[in-house]
């Protein structure tokens, strides 16, 4: 292995959005300095791991939502549809969005949630309420750390959209805050609950791929039209990230399912990352062809590469390739490939109903791909067998949004440990700042911190859960 330097504090990806600038630096305390490198900062006295810690059982899960743009507004009805769950408060900096969200719930026969908005800190008023158990955060990326941390400190559990934070010090802070408050923070990684992804997970754990050696995942989504829309991303927040840093801004959709199949943080861990990047051509080319010269985007310079690839190695010698590209013309793909000593599966490969193909020994031969359908039927996760029909009616992205929401509520109502914990969340989001660090060093590998502080080595449950019933709604 070539040299794997620790990550300099100067290379961390900044999170301040108000000015559109990168954070200039990080406070120089010994605790913060270690958090900005591959080293694990020391736990404070009395601070303990959250691995395996169950939720307190809730008869009803009361959800407060922060952020009611495209994602948040689209998720509120899913929360309300889950048995034993109710949305008690909604918040957005734009008060009219909170009102529309509340109106929408009422129109569906749900109780009217309390409304908060009109200022950047309106969510802090929402967090003073005593009728919230879970805070769901769907604001722009740069606010996730601050709002997730505030939710934990208020005594609530938090589910945060991707990424939970964009700097290593912020990721460590969320880990430490979760451990100190004894509250869970979970990445809202809906792709972990995709039907194909969960079937592949079960196949991997059942040994069908033999010894797992590598996986490949990505977020390859042509967002150019939406990035230049004046209405889709409020204040163009997502496009502006492409003016700030060269990094893999959103690798989790492809990385997380592969990590789950490899039992990352459950017997293996990610150790090093190296990144490559193509030139930033796609957004500027699209602007040249389709965006009028009067548009404010013509004042911007795009520096993030179109395709950023992270090559990740694990303690057990496996490799994961995670790709991010939202700037190029191409069909959508999360890649979803897993391979081992006895075979391989590849998703997003063609017109088959599942979209996936497979080749496994001894079932197959002749160097010919086979359809994935029979394996998905055999290894269909119990969550999809249980709520698949409801998922199609109550959630987006093919139903995996609702499956994620349903499972989260079920875990909280039964008093079980989360499928995705703060350590998974931090590890899956770490490639955001680490890719920036590697690219700044011409692609040299950098260390991936062990957010579990040694707890990764033991086997424990995760997404491959045993079937349990949802308690009856009162």
Fold and architecture overview:
This protein has 474 residues and is α/β, with parallel strands linked by helices. Helices cover 32% and strands 16% of the residues. It has 16 helices and 15 strands. The chain has helices at 30-35, 70-81, 95-107, 122-126, 144-153, 168-181, 195-205, 224-227, 237-240, 252-261, 282-290, 373-378, 382-394, 400-414, 422-429, 431-440, and strands at residues 61-66, 85-92, 114-117, 134-137, 157-160, 185-187, 212-220, 270-277, 308-314, 319-325, 337-340, 343-346, 357-360, 370-371, 446-447. The protein has a nine-stranded mixed beta sheet with strand order 14-13-12-11-7-10-9-8-15. The protein has a six-stranded parallel beta sheet with strand order 3-2-1-4-5-6, with helices on both faces. Strand 1 (61-66), helix 2 and strand 2 (85-92) form a beta-alpha-beta unit. The N and C termini lie far apart (57 Å). The model is unreliable at 1-36 (pLDDT under 50).
Number of helices: 16
Helix/strand-derived category reads alpha/beta
Number of strands: 15
Main sheet characteristics: 9 strands, mixed
End-to-end distance: 57 Å
Percentage of residues in strands? 15-25%
Gyration radius over CA: 21 Å
Mean pLDDT, all residues: 92
Stretches where pLDDT is under 50 for at least 5 consecutive residues are 1-36
How are the strands of the biggest sheet laid out side by side?
A: 14-13-12-11-7-10-9-8-15
């Amino acid at each position: 292995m070539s040299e794997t330097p620790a990550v300099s504090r100067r290379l961390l990806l900044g999170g301040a959005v108000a000015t559109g600038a990168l954070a200039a630096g990080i406070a120089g305390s010994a605790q913060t300095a270690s958090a900005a490198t591959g080293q694990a900062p020391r736990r404070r006295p009395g601070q303990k791991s959250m691995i395996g810690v169950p939720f307190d059982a809730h008869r009803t899960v009361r959800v407060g939502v922060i952020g009611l743009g495209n994602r948040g507004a689209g998720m509120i009805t899913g929360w309300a549809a889950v048995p034993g769950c109710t949305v008690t408060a909604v918040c957005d900096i734009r008060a009219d969005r909170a009102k529309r969200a509340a109106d929408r719930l009422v129109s569906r026969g749900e109780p009217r949630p309390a409304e908060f908005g009109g200022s950047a800190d309106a969510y802090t008023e929402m967090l003073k309420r005593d009728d919230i158990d879970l805070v769901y955060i769907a604001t722009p990326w740069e606010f996730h750390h601050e709002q997730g941390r505030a939710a934990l400190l208020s005594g609530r559990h938090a589910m945060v959209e991707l990424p939970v934070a964009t700097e290593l010090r912020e990721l460590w802070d969320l880990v430490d805050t979760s451990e100190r408050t004894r509250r869970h923070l979970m990445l809202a990684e809906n792709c972990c609950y995709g039907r194909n992804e969960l079937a592949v997970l079960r196949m991997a754990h059942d040994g069908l791929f033999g010894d797992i050696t590598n996986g490949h995942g990505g977020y390859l989504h042509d967002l150019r039209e939406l990035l230049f829309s004046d209405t889709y991303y409020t204040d163009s927040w997502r496009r502006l990230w492409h003016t700030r840093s060269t990094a893999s801004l959103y690798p989790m959709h492809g990385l997380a399912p592969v990590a789950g199949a490899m039992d990352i943080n459950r017997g293996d861990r990610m150790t090093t990352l190296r990144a490559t990047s193509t030139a930033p051509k796609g957004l500027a080319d699209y602007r040249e062809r389709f965006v009028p010269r009067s548009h404010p985007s013509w004042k911007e310079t795009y520096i993030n590469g179109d395709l950023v690839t992270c090559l990740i190695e694990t303690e057990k010698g496996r490799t994961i390739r995670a790709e991010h590209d939202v700037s190029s013309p191409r069909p959508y793909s999360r890649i979803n490939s897993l391979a081992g000593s006895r075979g391989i599966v590849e998703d997003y490969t063609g017109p088959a109903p599942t979209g996936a193909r497979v080749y496994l020994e001894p079932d197959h031969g002749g160097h010919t791909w086979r359809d994935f359908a029979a394996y998905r039927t055999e290894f269909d996760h119990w969550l999809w067998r249980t709520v698949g029909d409801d998922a199609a009616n109550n959630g987006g992205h093919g139903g995996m949004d609702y499956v994620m929401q349903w499972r989260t509520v079920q875990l909280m109502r039964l008093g079980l440990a989360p499928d995705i914990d703060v350590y998974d969340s931090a590890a899956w989001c770490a490639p955001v700042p680490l890719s920036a660090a590697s690219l700044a060093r011409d692609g040299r590998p950098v260390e991936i911190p062990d957010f579990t502080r040694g707890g990764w080595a033991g086997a424990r449950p995760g997404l491959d859960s045993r079937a349990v019933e949802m308690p009856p709604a009162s």
